[in-house]
Amino acid sequence: MKEISNRIKEIITKENIKKFSKYLTLVIVAIYLMLFVFGHKCYITFAENGMMNKDTLLNAVLVIGAAVLTVVLLLIKNNLSDRMNMFVSYALFFVSPVICYYAFEYFQKSIYTITVLSIRKRYLFFNFVILSVILLTIYIITNSTKVAVIGLTLIINLFGVINYYVYSFRGVALVAADVFSIQTASNVVEGYKLFIDTHIYYIFIITVFIISLACKLRSFKALPLWKLRIPAIICYIIYTSLFFYVFVFSNQLSNWNINVKLYRPHEGYRKYGTFLSTVRTMGYIIVEKPEGYSVKQIEDIADSYSLSSSAGQTPNIIVIMDEAFSDLETVNEFPISEDYMPFIHSLQENTIKGNAYVSVFGGNTANSEFEFLTGNSMGLLPANSVPYQLFIKKQFPSIVYSLKQQNYVGNIGMHPFKSNGFNRLTVYPLLGFEQFITIEKFQNADKLRDKVTDEANFNKIIEMYEESKSQSDNPFFLFNVTMQNHGGFITTDPNFVQKIKIEDEYYYDEGAQNYLSLIKYTDEAVEKLIKYFENVEEPTVVIFFGDHQPGLSQTWYDKILGKSEKDLTTQELMEKYKVPFFAWANYDIQEETVDKISMNYLSAYIMNKLGINLTKYQQFLLDVHEQVPVMNSIGYWGVDGGFYDYSDTTSPYYEIINQYRCVQYNNMHDKGKRVDSMFYMN
Question: What is its main location (predicted)?
């Protein structure tokens, strides 16, 4: 046994590990070059559409050049003296933020056409400062310039790859608030098809090249003595403290006019650089007290409304927020084989219907349900933040509580997927839900693309309704978030039938065509659900809406919108935030087509039309809606038809928007001082 141990020690030496790493890297680079040149359709000279492309050619030259240099680095021997080795190591250490930054931004230009040379020098300097903080943090921890350079390279290039895929899938670049959605993203990532293109090849080989360069230099302790290291640590603490104060916790970046529109973060990335823009979005997570806010102000607003003293209508209420459900032909018409939602389009009798504007595109589903359930607006919160993950930590007012106070039972939240997405397992009880039904209750349900179908989902709704009615005659409430139409629309599922075809080659997109077919599946499932409740004697209302439009390719959206997204006006961009809704009843209600409304008003608006008693907050929302019919994370429409930014102090609606902001602040952020009479029935 001892002989074996000694033999292992002889084999596993530092020198042998170095040799193994060198040859392994050589093999990887060789395979990589073969895949790039021969396996990727020879993208050295041709872009994906078969046409000569200067950027693709330059990308290929850089990739092959970096690969060749990497091989050369691995083959040559480091004959530098210790002194020269240390000098080169420190030189690489100090210039690595610059090298990594320019290499990174060249990669990112494929996302938002960033031109590094057009970025102002002071913004470039700020980006270097941000990278230096990462570099120095690793340096102080490891006491190694080599590890610091390698760590910086890996961190920022991994960020680049993630940002590239996120933008490709949802059409919006990463911002700081996305950190809080990591769990949800990990749940749904398997539904997307990861791809490797020339941009991924580029970032991979650049990473290997920089790491190989750092590894070629001999290691040494940067600060061998503690009497040198302690002052360095003190200087580091001072430097990073100043950095966080200036870049995150103060208004200094705003004073320097560095602002990022979070619904179009790539515009900021293009102007200020990726890292400065990302750090700037960290400041938007902090919610500040609104101008003129006081608890007395909220109490006065509450006193101006009264609760109904008589019993209101109490129909059974079934709310369905259908994943990625939208009517894309309302954005712009394009030729298709047949109507993809004929039944929903046909609903007229006893139906309130229209289009609602949401605050998210292609993802962050929970923000639409948050607006519907609570009446709060994402337009008055940090954009791209997810309130379920950031702000709801204790009992929180919602329509669930107001319905429970009117003797509703069931009070079920349902989502045929994992329970931990968007922190629902914790948040739903705080919103008043008494039961949360998730994927565990759908074990034998029919699936498409490995997701529970809407038909199976709606059958479960019927099952829960019948179970509730067997136990109580009280009105029933259920809120359902579906899963069938979730993103990742390229599929090989043999059970998936192409029900809709795009008939114009110009508009053809495989993902878009599959998506429209999924909407047809949903329409058929909705018809079956409505047919069931038509035969139910008890008054019942089905409220149905989409959470956001699908994250289809930006190229396809550019075609149906008629121009590139970067050329859209803010009002034109709103077309990507529009989803259909309807409220159908199995008894007589006043039919109506709603021209403009947003998700934060929708529940109060429909409940009012149905004669259900409202909280004072819901009454307040209806008053705001009369003046500001639409508001979301991008801006708001006034009743005068003008579209306004929330920061526009000249807007005729600035005062009422600020009043709404104050009421919402009291509801969400003023700990222990919420005016409950405003938000609950009693």
Answer: membrane
Partnered with residue 451 across adjacent β-strands are 448
- Which residues fall within 8 angstroms of residue 27, CB to CB, at 6 or more apart? none
Same domain, 374 and 458: yes
Answer yes or no: do 271 and 362 share one domain. Answer: no
Helix axes of 265-272 and 274-282: crossing angle, nearest 10 degrees = 130
Residues 275 and 300 in one domain: no
- pLDDT for 46 equals 34
Structural domains of the chain, count = 2
What the block records as the tokens of 680 is 């609950």
**Calpha distance 49→30 (Å, rounded):** 27
Same domain as 271, residue 363: no
The residue among 372, 373, 461, 371 whose CA lies nearest residue 416 is 461
Residue 382 domain boundaries:
295-678
70 occurs within a structural domain: no
Beta-ladder partners of 449: none
Spatial contact of 523 and 344, defined as CB atoms under 8 Å apart:
yes
CA distance 446 to 456: 6
Question: 321 with 358, same domain?
Answer: yes
Q: What pLDDT is recorded for position 542?
A: 97
**Could you tell me whether strands 409-414 and 476-481 are parallel, antiparallel, or unpaired per DSSP bridges?**
parallel
Domain match, 268 and 313 both: no
The domain that contains 567 carries what CATH number? 3.40.720.10
In a 13 Å sphere around the CA of 78, the CA atoms on its Cβ side amount to 19
DSSP summary character for residue 249: I
- Cα(6)–Cα(334) distance, rounded to whole angstroms? 73
Q: Per-residue confidence at 44, pLDDT binned at 50, 70, 90?
A: very low
- Residue tagged 């809709």 (tokens): 500
User: What are phi and psi for residue 597, nearest 5 degrees?
Assistant: -160, 160
